[in-house]
Task: structure prediction
Amino acid sequence: MSSLKRLAELVEKVGGIVTPEREVERLKKVANVRMAATGAADLESYARMLEERPDGEEWRKLLRSYTVKESYLFRAHQQFDVLSRHVLPNLVTRTGQNLRLWSAGCAHGEEPASLAVVLASRQNLVGDDWSILGTDIDEEALNLARMGVFSSHSMRRVPQRMSRQFFAAGPGCFRLRAHLRSKISYRYLNLVQGPMTSEGGPFHVIFLRNVLIYFNRENQQKVVDNVAAHLAPEGYLFVGPSESLWQMSQKLDVQELDGCFVYRHRNRQRPTARATPSPAPQPRSAAEPPGRAERRHSLEVGGGRPSGDPSVHLQAGLAAEWGGRLADAVRHYRAARYLDENLVDVRFLLARCLAACDWLDRARAEYRAILDLIESGRGRCIPGASDLGLPGLREIERVSRRELEG
Result:
């Protein structure tokens, strides 16, 4: 076994982070920097040192250097909209105030700051008795998060009104105001290395976004189970817009709120009535190609299979997309992806629609997920997809790489 492969296996074992083929060179570059810092003679010696000291400080430094920390405030803003308009009112009605939120994998503090701004914006509803916990595996990132200082680039999605109200502007940066910083506490936590303590919990809202993508399936299951154990009985769990907990937890159910999927305890007390979400705006799409009108009609009227069949949602998504209803298409493709996260053609169609709706970050996340699935051997196409004129696995891979490179 090569020293680099051995190091990748150690990183997965201790940190839970999987190193796909395309990230091997980046791991090597990070390891070379750490080798120089520690005085290790070569990669084999460095790997041996890590293996002998699984709880050593060098592990924290390596994982801190290897994990990606780029983010910005109000990333995937539709989830914060759902939090403000649906989740907080429901929680206040059912649990009162004193809400507790957890940002797992908080990086430099962009997500906890976004949560704090949302809560402060709804002060008339939630009051001032709330708290946020931010955790991360990177202690240097946590130290920066505690300062609450963000660059103009990180603030690019924050509305000007909120920026003026909740941040103090400085030379090229913005600092979260002191009364909001005091609401957020930070601490080190390796989500894979249990047991997890429930400091500040149970939590009414947990954001576990773009964290599970680093882990293998076994560690994903472990993390989800641990996090679910700290979710309050009436709480809400958010994962990344391109992520799904399908077949990952027997304790959680999915619920759709205005096009966003949230996860809740399966045995919670159900409300007697459910509010109808406001309809999403319908973006315009290109004219329907010749010959598709008949096929779209057959998709709209055909079926008869249960809604738990991803192919039903795929066909409904195609009918909506070809009819110019891209928001409906996105909703159906996301439902199909939830039912089977390994279907790369579903993800490909979803990415295409997300890009057409100008949700570029979410589209790129889907393209990256496609390449990861194909590389791991888990990616596959839905049976009968070729009959609908959909591309095959190799073509999906080629186009996904091209879109990411572009």
Summary: The chain has three domains: 3-66, 77-265, 292-405. The domain at 3-66 is CATH 1.10.155 (Chemotaxis Receptor Methyltransferase Cher; domain 1).
